[in-house]
Design brief:
Layout: E1 26-27, E2 41-43, E3 47-52, E4 58-64, E5 69-70, E6 78-81, E7 85-90, E8 97-102, E9 106-111, E10 126-129, E11 135-140, E12 147-152, E13 157-161, E14 168-169, E15 174-176, E16 183-188, E17 195-199, E18 204-208, E19 213-218, E20 223-230, E21 236-243, E22 248-254, E23 263-268, E24 274-279, E25 284-289, E26 294-300, E27 307-314
Parallel strand pairs: 1-5, 10-14
Antiparallel strand pairs: 2-3, 3-4, 4-6, 7-8, 8-9, 9-10, 11-12, 12-13, 13-15, 16-17, 17-18, 18-19, 20-21, 21-22, 22-23, 24-25, 25-26, 26-27
Length: 323
């Protein structure tokens, strides 16, 4: 009989989170009061972007990462949408390009100047008009430059090629219309050859975006999925959602077999959504509760038990979004 030790050696065993001091924070930022289930912020090495509260349209702020401290109340915004901004994402190939989508059924691409904004940016570089209803999610393709995916409340996912010269695009390269309800979450694998979606019909789908075909469809009854995430090139999917008893729940799936999860775990009875974020360099997974102050972190390993709980950051202040 071989003896297995109970503990695991991990260099991340004692990772702990710590809130930054006041002078390292961004103060007086008017964060949106919208209740849409999104991150509401996006960050890259140069900028932090935050969706803000504003009257009569949709706007977001772009603050240089080094510009900490109190924000001037008249600090310029990026505003050109006629409805609330629902999602913003930085271009992975260019730190000075950001995409935003909105309740006004459009997606806009913006060029951000290299210095502090002097006045509001109101004219987008490109405008994408294709969705019939509000657009809730956007995602850049991870390996093909200038390819953007947008998903709207018309249940369609549209693929756009931004390399064309026109400023207004109304013809997407492809439309994926395999969903019968609203898409709640989209995630690419590392090379962008597969797209995973979580839909309000409780199903997780793995799609080949080039062919437009659904390769896998899982409708596991006892896990109502909200967010889904490819774990880098581990060939696994991670999802957060709720159990039949309305407990918050996480699950791990094999991307080639979505019939039963490899692992399923109830976390707590809070009602806020759980946002998963994966760091493929360290194989660490962060699960952030919206509306509470919890960030749990796990380490992902290729062999069982796959998901190893490390620590938890707790704050008395509720979180609105994460980037």
């Amino acid at each position: 009989m071989s003896w297995h030790p109970q503990y695991r050696s991990s260099k991340f065993r004692h990772v702990y989170g710590k809130a930054a001091s006041k002078d390292k924070c961004y103060d007086c930022v008017p964060i949106t009061r919208n209740v849409h289930d999104n991150h509401f912020c996006a960050v890259n090495p140069s900028f932090i972007a935050v969706v803000t509260e504003c009257a009569g349209g949709g706007a977001f702020l772009v603050i240089p990462v080094k510009q900490t401290g109190k924000l001037d109340p008249h600090y310029p915004k990026v505003c050109g949408h006629k409805g609330n901004v629902l999602d913003i994402k930085w271009n992975p190939f260019n730190d000075f390009v950001i995409a935003s989508c909105s309740e006004d059924a459009t997606v806009k691409i913006w060029d951000i100047p290299n210095q502090l904004l002097k006045r509001n940016i109101t004219t987008p570089k490109k405008e994408l008009l294709g969705h019939a209803r509000r657009v809730g999610l956007i995602e850049w393709h991870p390996t093909a430059d200038n390819i953007l995916f947008s998903s709207g409340y018309d249940y369609k996912i549209m693929i756009w090629n931004l390399d064309v010269k026109d400023a207004i695009l109304s013809n997407p390269v492809k439309i994926l219309d395999g969903h019968k309800d609203v898409v709640l979450s989209m995630s690419f694998n590392t090379d962008g050859s597969l797209l995973a979606t979580a839909c309000r019909d409780r199903k997780i789908r793995v799609i080949d975006p080039r062919a437009g075909t659904v390769l896998q469809e899982g409708s596991y009854k006892s896990h109502k999925v909200n967010k889904v995430l490819f774990l880098g090139n581990m060939k696994k999917l991670f999802s957060t959602g709720t159990s039949c008893w309305n407990n918050r729940q996480i699950a791990l799936w094999d991307q080639n077999d979505l019939s039963v999860p490899l692992l399923e775990e109830d976390l707590d009875g809070s009602s806020g959504l759980l946002f998963p974020i994966y760091d493929s360099d360290t194989h660490m997974l962060y699960v952030v509760g919206k509306g509470d102050g919890n960030i749990r972190y796990y380490e992902i390993s290729p062999e069982k038990p796959y998901l190893n709980y490390l620590m938890e950051y707790r704050s008395p202040l509720p979180q609105k979004g994460i980037g």
